[in-house]
């Protein structure tokens, strides 16, 4: 009898084990890949951009610019020139903005919670427009500039942020001219008032907003 009782749990265990569905691990790429539709970056005060090059002197160099919250990687000079031009357009909208804001919740460079890295695989298109916000402490209403370069959206809260990021982009453009094969073609300073992008990336001012007539995710190919 003792032996019969000992066999019963083993039989039950085999029955339970056999009824469990087989577990198939999800392949790693399916667990980690995703689609990022928009990344929002809010900046105020002085921005210390860090410019580095990856694989210079090879056939596939990359220029990397690291700002607080976002790292952008560029694969040709045209991309850098257009990005500089977009920040210059944002500067045109700075009228009436504060020189410096101190906003609670906007992390410093040393305490940033998330750092997004993206590589441009096409020339960026974008738009800048003015908006306003209420300071959470002083309750004062102030203007700021939103710069959209899908999938990136920058909320530029004061003129110091705009000017320091623009200064970093100017340095990056000078380096891009020397780094990339298309540097001679896109060597013109896109932050200058006289600069105009090529027809397929041309920008125009409409009212108080700055929009592009080139293809963007929002306007198709109009």
Could you provide a short overview of the structure?
By secondary structure, this protein is an alpha+beta fold. The protein is built from four helices and ten strands. Helix 3 (77-92) runs antiparallel to helix 4.
Give an account of the 3D structure.
By secondary structure, this protein is an alpha+beta fold. It has one domain. Helix content is 27%, strand content 25%. The chain is built from four helices and ten strands; from the N terminus they run H-H-E-E-E-E-H-E-E-E-E-H-E-E. The protein has helices at residues 2-19, 28-32, 77-92, 159-179; strands spanning 39-43, 50-54, 62-67, 70-74, 116-119, 127-134, 141-149, 152-156, 203-206, 209-212. It has a four-stranded mixed β-sheet with strand order 1-8-7-6. A hairpin with a 2-residue loop joins strand 9 and strand 10.
Q: What count of domains describes the coordinates?
A: 1
C-alpha Rg, in Å? 26 Å
Instruction: Report the structural category.
Output: alpha+beta
Largest sheet: 4 strands, mixed
Low-confidence stretches: 205-222
β-sheet strand percentage: 15-25%
Helical fraction: 25-40%
Strand order of the largest sheet: 1-8-7-6
In DSSP terms, counting alpha (H) and pi (I) runs of 4 or more, how many helices? Answer: 4
> Which shape, going by the Cα principal axes?
globular
Distance between the termini: 86 Å
Provide the succession of SSEs.
HHEEEEHEEEEHEE
Average residue-wise pLDDT: 79
Please give the number of β-strands: 10
């Amino acid at each position: 009898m003792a032996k019969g009782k000992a066999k019963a749990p083993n039989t039950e265990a085999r029955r339970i084990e056999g009824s469990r569905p087989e577990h198939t691990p999800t392949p790693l790429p399916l667990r980690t890949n995703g689609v990022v539709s928009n990344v929002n970056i809010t900046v105020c005060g002085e921005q210390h951009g860090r410019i580095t090059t990856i694989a210079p002197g090879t056939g596939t160099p990359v220029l990397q610019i690291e700002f607080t919250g976002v790292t952008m990687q560029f694969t040709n000079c045209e991309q850098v020139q257009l990005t500089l031009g977009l920040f210059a357009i944002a500067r045109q909208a700075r009228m009436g903005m504060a020189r410096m804001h101190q906003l609670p919740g906007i992390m410093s460079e040393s305490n940033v919670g998330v750092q997004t890295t993206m590589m441009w695989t096409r020339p960026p298109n974008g738009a800048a427009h003015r908006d306003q916000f209420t300071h959470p402490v002083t309750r004062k209403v102030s203007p700021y500039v939103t710069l959209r370069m899908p999938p990136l959206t920058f909320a530029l809260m004061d003129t110091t942020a705009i000017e320091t990021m623009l200064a970093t982009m100017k340095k990056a453009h000078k380096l891009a001219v020397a780094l990339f094969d298309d540097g001679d073609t896109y060597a013109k300073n896109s932050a200058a008032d006289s600069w105009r992008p090529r027809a397929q990336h041309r920008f125009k001012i409409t009212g108080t907003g700055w929009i592009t007539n080139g293809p963007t995710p929002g306007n198709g190919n109009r």
